Amino acid sequence: MAPHDLRRWIKRVSISDQQKRRDIALQRQQQNRRDSQHQARLLATSILSLQPELEPEEVEKSFSHFDVIRASKLKGSEARQWFSHQLMLPEWMIDVPPRLNQDWYVFARPSGKRCFVVSSDGTTVSRLRNGSVLHHFPSNLPNGARTKDNSGPAHSFCLLDCIFHEQDQTYYVIDMVCWSGYSYYDCSAEFRFFWLNSKLAENGACDPPSLYHRYRFSVVPILNCDQMGLHAAYAGTAPYVKDGLLFYNKHAHYQTGNTPLALVWKDESCSQYVIDTDSKGQIPSQQQVVLELQEDGNVTTSDDPPVIFGSLNREFVEQSGLRFGNLLRFAVSDGGMKFADGKLEMADIHYAGKTNKARAFADTYSKVLFQYSARHSPLRMDDLIVSISSSHDYQLDETNKDIEMAG
Protein backbone atom coordinates (compact mmCIF):
# COMPACT_ATOMS: atom_id res chain seq x y z
CA MET A 1 0.00 0.00 0.00
CA ALA A 2 1.37 3.44 -0.92
CA PRO A 3 2.43 5.59 2.08
CA HIS A 4 -0.11 8.29 1.23
CA ASP A 5 -2.98 5.81 0.99
CA LEU A 6 -5.37 5.58 3.94
CA ARG A 7 -7.47 2.98 2.18
CA ARG A 8 -7.74 0.61 5.09
CA TRP A 9 -10.25 -0.60 7.60
CA ILE A 10 -9.85 1.49 10.72
CA LYS A 11 -11.06 -0.06 13.94
CA ARG A 12 -12.60 2.52 16.26
CA VAL A 13 -13.10 2.55 19.99
CA SER A 14 -16.66 3.09 21.14
CA ILE A 15 -17.96 6.60 20.48
CA SER A 16 -21.03 7.88 22.35
CA ASP A 17 -24.04 8.39 20.15
CA GLN A 18 -25.68 11.78 19.80
CA GLN A 19 -28.44 11.22 22.35
CA LYS A 20 -25.99 10.12 25.04
CA ARG A 21 -23.92 13.25 24.42
CA ARG A 22 -27.08 15.37 24.68
CA ASP A 23 -27.77 13.88 28.10
CA ILE A 24 -24.18 14.49 29.17
CA ALA A 25 -24.30 18.09 27.91
CA LEU A 26 -27.44 18.83 29.93
CA GLN A 27 -25.94 17.23 33.06
CA ARG A 28 -22.73 19.24 32.66
CA GLN A 29 -24.77 22.37 32.17
CA GLN A 30 -26.63 21.82 35.45
CA GLN A 31 -23.37 21.16 37.27
CA ASN A 32 -21.78 24.33 35.86
CA ARG A 33 -24.75 26.36 37.06
CA ARG A 34 -24.43 24.90 40.57
CA ASP A 35 -20.70 25.68 40.56
CA SER A 36 -21.35 29.27 39.44
CA GLN A 37 -23.99 29.77 42.13
CA HIS A 38 -21.63 28.37 44.76
CA GLN A 39 -18.82 30.67 43.59
CA ALA A 40 -21.18 33.67 43.70
CA ARG A 41 -22.20 32.83 47.28
CA LEU A 42 -18.54 32.58 48.32
CA LEU A 43 -17.79 35.92 46.70
CA ALA A 44 -20.78 37.61 48.33
CA THR A 45 -19.84 36.17 51.73
CA SER A 46 -16.25 37.34 51.49
CA ILE A 47 -17.31 40.84 50.46
CA LEU A 48 -19.96 41.20 53.19
CA SER A 49 -17.64 39.93 55.89
CA LEU A 50 -14.82 42.19 54.62
CA GLN A 51 -12.52 39.20 54.58
CA PRO A 52 -10.24 39.06 51.52
CA GLU A 53 -10.82 35.34 50.93
CA LEU A 54 -10.57 35.91 47.19
CA GLU A 55 -7.86 38.06 45.69
CA PRO A 56 -8.93 40.39 42.83
CA GLU A 57 -7.06 38.25 40.30
CA GLU A 58 -8.86 35.13 41.53
CA VAL A 59 -12.24 36.85 41.29
CA GLU A 60 -11.45 37.95 37.74
CA LYS A 61 -10.48 34.42 36.76
CA SER A 62 -13.71 33.04 38.25
CA PHE A 63 -15.90 35.36 36.25
CA SER A 64 -13.90 35.73 33.03
CA HIS A 65 -15.99 33.36 30.90
CA PHE A 66 -16.57 36.18 28.48
CA ASP A 67 -15.21 39.74 28.35
CA VAL A 68 -16.51 41.31 25.16
CA ILE A 69 -15.10 44.74 26.03
CA ARG A 70 -11.57 43.37 26.21
CA ALA A 71 -12.12 41.15 23.18
CA SER A 72 -13.54 44.03 21.12
CA LYS A 73 -10.21 45.84 21.51
CA LEU A 74 -8.15 42.94 20.17
CA LYS A 75 -6.56 43.48 16.78
CA GLY A 76 -5.37 41.37 13.86
CA SER A 77 -4.58 37.71 14.41
CA GLU A 78 -5.39 37.85 18.15
CA ALA A 79 -8.92 39.04 17.43
CA ARG A 80 -9.42 36.45 14.67
CA GLN A 81 -8.15 33.67 16.92
CA TRP A 82 -10.43 34.67 19.82
CA PHE A 83 -13.62 35.16 17.83
CA SER A 84 -13.08 31.97 15.82
CA HIS A 85 -13.86 29.96 18.97
CA GLN A 86 -16.88 31.86 20.33
CA LEU A 87 -19.85 30.71 18.23
CA MET A 88 -22.16 27.93 19.41
CA LEU A 89 -22.09 25.48 16.51
CA PRO A 90 -24.90 22.98 15.92
CA GLU A 91 -24.17 19.34 15.28
CA TRP A 92 -25.73 17.69 12.25
CA MET A 93 -28.83 15.68 13.10
CA ILE A 94 -27.96 12.00 12.78
CA ASP A 95 -30.85 10.75 14.91
CA VAL A 96 -34.19 12.26 15.94
CA PRO A 97 -34.13 13.43 19.56
CA PRO A 98 -36.84 12.06 21.87
CA ARG A 99 -39.44 14.60 23.04
CA LEU A 100 -38.77 16.64 19.90
CA ASN A 101 -42.22 18.24 20.13
CA GLN A 102 -41.79 19.18 23.80
CA ASP A 103 -38.16 20.14 24.37
CA TRP A 104 -37.13 21.69 21.05
CA TYR A 105 -37.59 24.79 18.91
CA VAL A 106 -37.28 24.77 15.14
CA PHE A 107 -36.71 27.51 12.56
CA ALA A 108 -35.71 27.81 8.92
CA ARG A 109 -32.04 28.67 8.71
CA PRO A 110 -31.29 31.67 6.46
CA SER A 111 -28.74 31.07 3.74
CA GLY A 112 -25.69 33.23 4.28
CA LYS A 113 -22.62 33.90 6.39
CA ARG A 114 -22.71 32.91 10.06
CA CYS A 115 -21.18 35.63 12.20
CA PHE A 116 -20.97 37.40 15.55
CA VAL A 117 -22.12 41.01 15.63
CA VAL A 118 -20.47 43.06 18.40
CA SER A 119 -21.50 46.63 19.27
CA SER A 120 -19.20 48.51 21.63
CA ASP A 121 -17.55 51.90 22.06
CA GLY A 122 -19.73 53.61 19.47
CA THR A 123 -19.25 51.17 16.61
CA THR A 124 -20.43 47.78 15.37
CA VAL A 125 -18.31 44.97 13.92
CA SER A 126 -19.37 41.62 12.46
CA ARG A 127 -16.93 38.72 12.43
CA LEU A 128 -17.19 35.47 10.48
CA ARG A 129 -16.80 32.01 11.95
CA ASN A 130 -13.05 32.07 11.23
CA GLY A 131 -12.74 35.36 13.17
CA SER A 132 -12.14 37.68 10.21
CA VAL A 133 -14.07 40.95 9.90
CA LEU A 134 -17.10 40.95 7.62
CA HIS A 135 -18.43 44.50 8.15
CA HIS A 136 -17.53 47.54 10.24
CA PHE A 137 -20.53 49.86 10.55
CA PRO A 138 -22.82 52.02 12.77
CA SER A 139 -26.02 50.48 14.15
CA ASN A 140 -28.89 51.04 16.57
CA LEU A 141 -27.59 48.27 18.81
CA PRO A 142 -26.47 49.30 22.31
CA ASN A 143 -23.42 51.57 21.98
CA GLY A 144 -23.28 50.66 18.29
CA ALA A 145 -22.92 54.18 16.84
CA ARG A 146 -21.50 57.53 17.90
CA THR A 147 -24.75 59.42 18.37
CA LYS A 148 -26.41 61.11 21.34
CA ASP A 149 -29.28 58.64 21.28
CA ASN A 150 -27.02 55.60 21.08
CA SER A 151 -24.12 56.45 23.33
CA GLY A 152 -23.42 54.91 26.68
CA PRO A 153 -20.84 53.75 29.20
CA ALA A 154 -18.15 51.26 28.29
CA HIS A 155 -20.10 48.36 29.75
CA SER A 156 -23.02 48.99 27.39
CA PHE A 157 -22.18 46.46 24.71
CA CYS A 158 -24.04 43.85 22.70
CA LEU A 159 -23.24 40.48 21.16
CA LEU A 160 -25.58 38.78 18.71
CA ASP A 161 -25.31 35.47 16.85
CA CYS A 162 -26.41 36.22 13.28
CA ILE A 163 -26.49 35.07 9.68
CA PHE A 164 -25.83 37.76 7.08
CA HIS A 165 -28.15 37.29 4.09
CA GLU A 166 -26.52 38.79 1.01
CA GLN A 167 -29.67 39.04 -1.12
CA ASP A 168 -31.41 41.61 1.10
CA GLN A 169 -28.34 42.85 3.02
CA THR A 170 -29.92 41.85 6.33
CA TYR A 171 -28.53 40.39 9.53
CA TYR A 172 -30.93 37.68 10.66
CA VAL A 173 -30.48 37.22 14.40
CA ILE A 174 -30.67 33.62 15.58
CA ASP A 175 -29.48 34.12 19.18
CA MET A 176 -28.63 36.76 21.76
CA VAL A 177 -25.51 36.30 23.88
CA CYS A 178 -25.10 39.72 25.54
CA TRP A 179 -27.29 42.82 25.63
CA SER A 180 -26.47 46.20 27.20
CA GLY A 181 -23.68 44.59 29.16
CA TYR A 182 -25.74 41.68 30.51
CA SER A 183 -24.60 38.15 29.68
CA TYR A 184 -27.11 35.50 28.63
CA TYR A 185 -24.60 32.66 28.33
CA ASP A 186 -26.02 30.75 31.28
CA CYS A 187 -29.68 31.36 30.37
CA SER A 188 -31.83 28.76 28.63
CA ALA A 189 -32.65 29.11 24.94
CA GLU A 190 -36.26 29.60 25.96
CA PHE A 191 -35.28 32.67 28.02
CA ARG A 192 -32.83 34.03 25.42
CA PHE A 193 -35.32 33.80 22.56
CA PHE A 194 -38.04 35.55 24.59
CA TRP A 195 -35.79 38.53 25.35
CA LEU A 196 -34.33 38.57 21.85
CA ASN A 197 -37.65 39.47 20.28
CA SER A 198 -38.51 42.20 22.77
CA LYS A 199 -35.06 43.83 22.97
CA LEU A 200 -34.47 44.15 19.23
CA ALA A 201 -37.91 45.65 18.64
CA GLU A 202 -37.69 48.26 21.41
CA ASN A 203 -34.15 49.29 20.48
CA GLY A 204 -34.84 50.11 16.82
CA ALA A 205 -32.44 47.48 15.50
CA CYS A 206 -35.13 46.25 13.12
CA ASP A 207 -35.61 49.72 11.63
CA PRO A 208 -34.79 50.32 7.94
CA PRO A 209 -31.17 51.28 7.16
CA SER A 210 -30.14 54.89 7.75
CA LEU A 211 -27.02 57.03 8.21
CA TYR A 212 -26.38 55.69 11.70
CA HIS A 213 -27.88 52.25 11.10
CA ARG A 214 -26.32 50.85 7.95
CA TYR A 215 -27.80 47.34 7.93
CA ARG A 216 -31.20 46.03 8.86
CA PHE A 217 -31.56 43.40 11.58
CA SER A 218 -34.42 40.93 11.66
CA VAL A 219 -35.46 38.14 14.01
CA VAL A 220 -35.90 34.65 12.57
CA PRO A 221 -39.35 33.20 13.42
CA ILE A 222 -38.66 30.62 16.15
CA LEU A 223 -41.36 27.96 16.51
CA ASN A 224 -42.22 25.14 18.87
CA CYS A 225 -41.27 21.89 17.16
CA ASP A 226 -44.74 20.38 17.10
CA GLN A 227 -46.42 19.29 13.87
CA MET A 228 -47.59 22.80 12.98
CA GLY A 229 -44.28 24.44 13.84
CA LEU A 230 -42.21 21.88 11.92
CA HIS A 231 -44.45 22.20 8.85
CA ALA A 232 -44.30 26.00 8.97
CA ALA A 233 -40.50 26.04 9.20
CA TYR A 234 -40.10 23.41 6.49
CA ALA A 235 -42.76 24.33 3.93
CA GLY A 236 -43.83 27.85 4.90
CA THR A 237 -42.67 31.01 3.17
CA ALA A 238 -39.74 33.02 4.53
CA PRO A 239 -38.33 36.46 3.66
CA TYR A 240 -34.96 34.85 2.99
CA VAL A 241 -33.49 31.92 1.07
CA LYS A 242 -33.63 28.82 3.28
CA ASP A 243 -30.64 26.63 3.98
CA GLY A 244 -32.04 23.79 6.06
CA LEU A 245 -33.64 23.75 9.51
CA LEU A 246 -32.12 24.52 12.89
CA PHE A 247 -33.32 22.82 16.07
CA TYR A 248 -32.54 24.22 19.53
CA ASN A 249 -33.12 22.43 22.83
CA LYS A 250 -35.21 24.77 25.00
CA HIS A 251 -33.01 24.10 28.05
CA ALA A 252 -29.69 24.67 26.28
CA HIS A 253 -27.35 27.41 27.49
CA TYR A 254 -25.17 29.24 24.99
CA GLN A 255 -21.94 27.24 24.93
CA THR A 256 -19.06 27.87 22.59
CA GLY A 257 -18.04 25.19 20.12
CA ASN A 258 -20.01 22.21 18.83
CA THR A 259 -23.00 21.07 20.85
CA PRO A 260 -25.60 18.30 20.41
CA LEU A 261 -28.16 20.64 22.04
CA ALA A 262 -28.43 22.47 18.71
CA LEU A 263 -28.91 20.55 15.46
CA VAL A 264 -28.97 21.30 11.74
CA TRP A 265 -30.87 19.20 9.22
CA LYS A 266 -31.34 19.53 5.44
CA ASP A 267 -33.00 17.96 2.45
CA GLU A 268 -33.47 19.03 -1.17
CA SER A 269 -36.78 20.79 -0.41
CA CYS A 270 -35.35 23.28 2.07
CA SER A 271 -31.74 23.68 0.97
CA GLN A 272 -29.84 24.03 -2.26
CA TYR A 273 -26.81 22.34 -0.72
CA VAL A 274 -27.49 19.03 0.99
CA ILE A 275 -24.53 16.97 -0.24
CA ASP A 276 -21.20 18.82 -0.25
CA THR A 277 -19.95 19.99 -3.65
CA ASP A 278 -16.45 20.54 -4.99
CA SER A 279 -14.86 23.86 -6.01
CA LYS A 280 -16.80 23.74 -9.31
CA GLY A 281 -20.13 23.27 -7.58
CA GLN A 282 -20.39 19.63 -8.64
CA ILE A 283 -21.19 16.69 -6.34
CA PRO A 284 -18.11 14.42 -6.36
CA SER A 285 -18.59 10.70 -6.91
CA GLN A 286 -16.96 9.98 -3.55
CA GLN A 287 -17.75 11.69 -0.26
CA GLN A 288 -15.07 14.18 0.75
CA VAL A 289 -13.94 14.48 4.38
CA VAL A 290 -11.75 17.28 5.76
CA LEU A 291 -9.53 16.24 8.68
CA GLU A 292 -6.76 17.94 10.68
CA LEU A 293 -3.22 16.54 10.78
CA GLN A 294 -1.91 16.03 14.32
CA GLU A 295 1.73 15.87 15.49
CA ASP A 296 1.62 12.07 15.77
CA GLY A 297 0.35 11.71 12.19
CA ASN A 298 -3.26 11.06 13.14
CA VAL A 299 -5.95 12.84 11.13
CA THR A 300 -8.93 13.93 13.19
CA THR A 301 -12.22 15.80 13.22
CA SER A 302 -12.68 19.19 14.92
CA ASP A 303 -14.69 17.72 17.79
CA ASP A 304 -13.65 18.00 21.43
CA PRO A 305 -12.36 15.38 21.96
CA PRO A 306 -11.48 14.80 18.30
CA VAL A 307 -12.39 11.61 16.47
CA ILE A 308 -9.41 9.84 14.85
CA PHE A 309 -10.10 8.60 11.32
CA GLY A 310 -6.66 7.32 10.45
CA SER A 311 -2.95 8.10 10.30
CA LEU A 312 -0.33 9.23 7.79
CA ASN A 313 3.20 7.88 8.18
CA ARG A 314 6.04 10.27 8.92
CA GLU A 315 7.85 9.64 5.60
CA PHE A 316 4.85 10.71 3.52
CA VAL A 317 4.20 13.73 5.74
CA GLU A 318 7.78 14.95 5.26
CA GLN A 319 7.88 14.23 1.51
CA SER A 320 4.59 16.10 0.96
CA GLY A 321 5.62 19.10 3.03
CA LEU A 322 2.69 18.66 5.38
CA ARG A 323 2.70 20.24 8.83
CA PHE A 324 0.94 19.79 12.12
CA GLY A 325 -2.41 21.61 11.97
CA ASN A 326 -2.83 21.32 8.20
CA LEU A 327 -6.36 20.61 7.00
CA LEU A 328 -6.35 17.69 4.57
CA ARG A 329 -9.00 16.30 2.25
CA PHE A 330 -9.81 12.59 2.13
CA ALA A 331 -12.21 10.60 -0.05
CA VAL A 332 -14.42 7.81 1.24
CA SER A 333 -13.68 4.74 -0.89
CA ASP A 334 -15.84 1.81 -1.92
CA GLY A 335 -15.60 0.20 1.52
CA GLY A 336 -17.49 3.15 2.96
CA MET A 337 -18.11 3.35 6.69
CA LYS A 338 -19.56 0.85 9.12
CA PHE A 339 -21.57 1.78 12.19
CA ALA A 340 -23.08 -0.17 15.09
CA ASP A 341 -25.33 1.30 17.78
CA GLY A 342 -24.48 4.84 16.73
CA LYS A 343 -20.73 4.18 16.81
CA LEU A 344 -18.20 4.25 13.99
CA GLU A 345 -16.53 0.86 13.68
CA MET A 346 -14.76 1.04 10.31
CA ALA A 347 -13.88 3.58 7.64
CA ASP A 348 -12.29 3.20 4.20
CA ILE A 349 -10.65 6.51 3.24
CA HIS A 350 -7.66 7.71 1.19
CA TYR A 351 -5.72 10.96 1.02
CA ALA A 352 -6.84 13.36 -1.72
CA GLY A 353 -4.88 16.58 -1.06
CA LYS A 354 -4.82 19.80 0.90
CA THR A 355 -7.86 22.01 1.40
CA ASN A 356 -8.38 25.63 0.44
CA LYS A 357 -6.27 27.92 2.64
CA ALA A 358 -9.35 29.96 3.56
CA ARG A 359 -10.80 26.99 5.42
CA ALA A 360 -10.37 27.26 9.19
CA PHE A 361 -11.75 24.02 10.66
CA ALA A 362 -11.90 20.30 9.98
CA ASP A 363 -15.25 18.56 9.61
CA THR A 364 -17.10 17.47 12.72
CA TYR A 365 -17.93 13.83 13.29
CA SER A 366 -21.66 14.55 13.02
CA LYS A 367 -21.19 16.25 9.65
CA VAL A 368 -19.28 13.24 8.29
CA LEU A 369 -22.10 10.97 9.44
CA PHE A 370 -24.81 13.22 8.03
CA GLN A 371 -23.09 13.45 4.65
CA TYR A 372 -22.60 9.70 4.58
CA SER A 373 -26.25 9.11 5.44
CA ALA A 374 -27.37 11.65 2.83
CA ARG A 375 -25.67 9.53 0.16
CA HIS A 376 -26.93 6.15 1.39
CA SER A 377 -29.89 6.32 3.79
CA PRO A 378 -30.88 9.93 4.57
CA LEU A 379 -32.86 11.02 7.58
CA ARG A 380 -36.06 12.31 5.95
CA MET A 381 -38.76 14.76 6.95
CA ASP A 382 -41.16 11.83 7.29
CA ASP A 383 -38.92 10.45 10.04
CA LEU A 384 -39.19 13.71 11.98
CA ILE A 385 -42.97 13.84 11.51
CA VAL A 386 -43.37 10.23 12.66
CA SER A 387 -41.29 10.95 15.76
CA ILE A 388 -43.46 13.94 16.67
CA SER A 389 -46.68 12.03 15.96
CA SER A 390 -45.56 9.06 18.06
CA SER A 391 -44.64 11.34 20.96
CA HIS A 392 -48.00 13.12 20.68
CA ASP A 393 -49.92 9.82 20.69
CA TYR A 394 -47.97 8.67 23.75
CA GLN A 395 -48.86 11.87 25.60
CA LEU A 396 -52.55 11.36 24.78
CA ASP A 397 -52.42 7.77 26.04
CA GLU A 398 -50.82 8.87 29.29
CA THR A 399 -53.43 11.63 29.71
CA ASN A 400 -56.28 9.16 29.13
CA LYS A 401 -54.78 6.79 31.71
CA ASP A 402 -54.65 9.59 34.26
CA ILE A 403 -58.30 10.46 33.56
CA GLU A 404 -59.36 6.83 33.93
CA MET A 405 -57.49 6.49 37.21
CA ALA A 406 -59.00 9.73 38.51
CA GLY A 407 -62.46 8.48 37.53
TrEMBL record:
Its main location: cytoplasm. SUPFAM superfamilies: DNA ligase/mRNA capping enzyme, catalytic domain. Keywords: Cytoplasm, Nucleus, RNA-binding, Transport. Residues 86-262 form the Snurportin-1 m3G cap-binding domain. Pfam families: SPN1_m3Gcap_bd. GO terms for biological process: snRNA import into nucleus. GO terms for cellular component: cytoplasm; nucleus. InterPro entries: Snurportin-1, Snurportin1_C. One of its GO terms (molecular function) is RNA binding. It is found in: Cytoplasm; Nucleus. PANTHER family: SNURPORTIN-1, SNURPORTIN1 RNUT1 PROTEIN RNA, U TRANSPORTER 1. Functions as an U snRNP-specific nuclear import adapter. Involved in the trimethylguanosine (m3G)-cap-dependent nuclear import of U snRNPs. Binds specifically to the terminal m3G-cap U snRNAs. Belongs to the snurportin family. This is Snurportin-1. It comes from Kingdonia uniflora.
